[in-house]
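Work package 3, deliverable 3.1, input record:
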Amino acid sequence: MIKLNNINKTYFGAQPLHVLKGINLDVEEGELVSIMGASGSGKSTLLNILGILDNYDEGDYYLAGQLVKNLSENQAAEFRNKLIGFIFQSFNLIPFKTALENVALPLFYQGVNRKKRNMMAMEYLERFGLKEWAEHYPNELSGGQKQRVSIARALVTSPKLILADEPTGALDSKTSAEVMQILREVNATGITMVIVTHERGIANLTRKIVHLKDGIIESIEENDPDKMDFTKEIK
Amino acid sequence: MFNRDFWSEIFMALKRNKLRTILTGFAISWGIFMLIILLSAGNGLKNGVTGNFADRIKNTYTIWSSSTELPYKGHKAGRFIMLTNKDIQLLESLYQVEEVSPVLSKGGTLIFGEKSRNVSMEGVKPIYKNIEGIKMIEGRFINENDMNNKLKVLIIDKNTNDELLRISGETSMIGKTVYINGLSFKVIGVSKGMAFGEMGQCFAPYATLKAIYNINEYYQLKFITKGLDTKEDNEVFQKELKRKIAALHDFSPEDKRGVWIDSEMVNSLETMRIFNTINIFIWVIGIAMLISGVVGVSNIMRITVKERTNEIGIRKALGAKPRSILMSIVMESLVITTIFGYIGMICGVGVMEIVNMIMESSGGMSDPNGMSVFVNPTVDISIVISATLVLIVSGVAAGFAPAWNSVKVKPIEAMNYR
């Protein structure tokens, strides 16, 4: 699903910052992978490159068999829209749109007509128990509800890959556990998922843990989440 | 692309910032409003002034007799030069001259029944009506038949006509016989006239007066030219003509006086040049006002886009193409400028239509002889169309720079923008 060959990325500011120093990584279809690392290790940058939200300087990135390099803005938008679903720490819902409209937005950019996309969006909201909240605005929702709306939004286009940047970073431990449960269920339907986190408890729920340090992959740890005890708090 | 969703997004964005939208729009409304008012006023002035001469033929000349200013070949200065038949022959020999109408002037007393009135009687040819742009209120002007048969027919001016009707109690002077200096004339027409004060102005056929009074000297010669289209052509012709007439009458060709040669074409070109200058001036002021409105819109759009950077980043992450973002911002700006521009335009046109209505019902701004200075101060459809184009161009221009900036920024930078 994802194949990274020697990815390099430097931020050219007043002081050039070499954040990614040759990343090689393969993620198979249907895998649940977490990327761990301290802040500044380059994990967010890596996720942004995976999501084509940022570009890289050197190397090759293959997404679903296609080389993602020097894409035009139009091609990048198409890739993001069709292949990738995003889940962010700060939810990134549009504040003046209702939960339903937020979930329907990616379909709008696919050119799906209003009736059909509202129907599809409603289906996904229902799946995450938010049917009654469909007409509410984000500021009327709790953190957990917001994150579930954004998961619904990420899934509504049936993407091949879900990228989650600290999906539980703004949530309390109980809600975090719920959200992680949802993400694991989503992964169980065969959607590849990459989660960036700095919390060991979250990473422990994934099958493969990539440890990133100072822009290089330190180690890749195989993990069996089913051994984890869910009765215990994950933080 | 421009479906219901697209427009509802734009109107939502405008609605969210109602006050800002209205304040921005006001600058545009005001700019267009003032542009329309200024252009209408300019038009009114132009219509008023040029309307007085509108029916005149433009390529006409008048030569006036006058006294000399310089001594020449033993003649003293101050000699009065009367125009003669030789001048008419000279004019008729010039290839630039199409037709000459000498003006015979004869003062006298017009008598109709009990009423008498001082008038000046001008003996003119039929072409004189076009040269001077004389407007007939009733009846007709002199024709070729009057000339050929030397008929004693008369056109009287409106003031004289009104006066005679008032005294006599008649309803029309047409067909009535009046006496001037003892000679009977049949009235065939009433002209709007350019008479001043108590003196009436009448026209009779040139041939008739020439036969009666045997006049061979003239105060005025009028003629129509052909092929003199530019100011330069006319100036050359004027100088050449002056030299020839000076030779005929033995006065200095350098003499500024002697005879006056007056070109309607040069006058009219001069007048048009003044109005064109005024018009350009108005457009410059109007556009400058509009630019300040456009800069306002552009500025507001810049702030709007800045505030919406996060939202734009999210939209990009969800798969919004650059074109859709660019279009939504440009269209938002365009919607503000056109809607508020049209409000301004409608107000401006409305105000000037009301002014026009009031002026028409109160007789307008004109002097007692019907010489107008301000007529129909409204703009025509072509100006409304060009103002619309200006609005559209300025709306797109105002939105484009901010929109382009938001398109260029990377989605992750936009999302992280605080």
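DSSP finds seven helices and ten strands in chain A.
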